[in-house]
Design a protein that fits this description.
With 316 residues, the chain is an alpha+beta fold. The chain has a single domain, classed as Oxidoreductase, molybdopterin-binding domain (Sulfite Oxidase, Chain A, domain 2, Alpha-Beta Complex). 20% of the residues lie in helices and 21% in strands. The protein is built from eight helices and 13 strands. The strands form two sheets. Strands 1, 4, 5, 8, 9, 10, 12 and 13 form an eight-stranded mixed β-sheet that branches. The longest helix is centred in the N-terminal third of the chain and has 25 residues. The two termini are 15 Å apart. The structure holds ligand MTE. Ligand MTE binds next to loops.
């Protein structure tokens, strides 16, 4: 992802500094990728509390899951820092209980749910999904969660509902990356993401509370995150405290930071390059070869109809 300049840097230096940081994070990313299978960047967390779920075969991809150790030590979670091992190193700072999720906006029954109430409300399913990061790496993860649609329907969207906005916790005590200037990089916190209402209601879109048979590790977005498998990973907001049904397209954190690089839709699309790199191929964590990136991350059969008639270069 794009790394922004610190506020005290002269405008003439911005491009170089950005390139430098991007190159640095790219190089570190590449090194971590190579090392991920045998030598993780940080210790994997102790096995978490187990979480029961019914496996949903209809949505499971046949690819073998990525090692739990890699999925929990090679993360993007800028609230903890810009390096891939910052989230695992600092994840203990996040307190996922007590936790509430406010569900409001254009809905007839707005409600603030305690996280454990939310988990009890809907049957938990296990679904093996691919996750493709915009940076060119991918993972295969057995998530545990329930369709976001179940929650959205429960609060009864009104006729004004057009989009769904997710907001991550804002708390610089728990998230050192939100402390101004700490890493010389800052998004406009809190992290905000969004989906069109029909995308949010799509049966593939999950609200996730666990992975690999256990509760979600903090670095993967505890206690609850979105998972939208046909979109680049950054659409899958972590540690969500608010889900708001809105009429206007939400302004997302990455769109605000770099609108020419990160569009609202961000569907995985090997034919539309990122302005600074190709999206044609990807590297599965734990593998060395590059594989071809699939349209909509391999979920075209299920989601292509959502975008019928849309120019996907314009709506990237
Ligand atoms: N959510 C928040 N709140 N903050 C983040 O920095 N990073 C995104 C997404 N969700 C991010 C986030 C990006 S860029 C990716 S690729 C995925 O989380 C990574 O998820 P993982 O670390 O569990 O693999």
């Amino acid at each position: 992802m794009l790394i922004r300049h610190a506020p005290d840097i002269k405008s003439s230096e911005i491009t170089g500094f950005r390139l430098y940081l991007n190159r640095r994070s790219f190089l570190m990313g590449a090194a971590a990728l190579a090392l991920a299978p045998s030598r993780p960047a940080a210790a994997a967390p102790p096995t978490g509390q187990s979480l029961k779920a019914t496996r949903h075969e209809a949505f499971a991809v046949p690819d073998p899951p990525t090692k739990f150790e890699s999925v929990t030590t090679y993360n993007n979670f800028y609230e903890f820092g810009v390096n891939k091992d910052d989230p695992a190193r600092l994840a203990h700072l996040l307190k996922p209980r007590p936790w509430t999720v406010q569900v409001d906006g254009h809905v007839a029954r707005p409600k603030t749910y305690d996280i454990d109430e939310l988990i009890r409300l809907f049957p938990l399913e296990e679904r093996v999904y691919r996750l493709r990061c915009v940076e060119g790496w991918s993972m295969v993860i057995p998530w545990i969660g329930f369709p976001l649609a179940s929650l959205i329907k429960r609060v009864e969207p009104t006729g004004k509902a057009g989009f769904v906005e997710f907001t991550t916790l804002l708390d610089p005590e728990q998230f050192p990356g939100q402390r101004k200037g700490l890493f010389g990089f800052s998004l406009d916190w809190p992290y905000v993401e969004g989906l069109r209402l029909d995308e949010a209601l799509h049966p593939l879109t999950l609200l996730t509370v666990g992975m690999y048979g256990q509760v979600l590790p903090n670095q993967d977005g505890a206690p609850v995150r979105a998972v939208v498998p046909w979109k680049y990973g950054f659409k899958s907001a972590k540690s969500i405290v608010r889900i708001r049904v809105v009429s206007e397209q939400p302004k997302t954190a990455w769109e605000k930071a770099a609108p020419h690089e990160y569009g609202f839709y961000s569907n995985v699309n090997p034919t539309v390059d990122h302005p600074r790199w190709s999206q044609a191929t990807e590297r599965r964590i734990g593998e060395f070869r590059r594989r071809k990136t699939l349209m909509f991350n391999g979920y075209a059969d299920q989601v292509a109809s959502l975008y019928a008639g849309m120019d996907l270069r314009k709506y990237f």
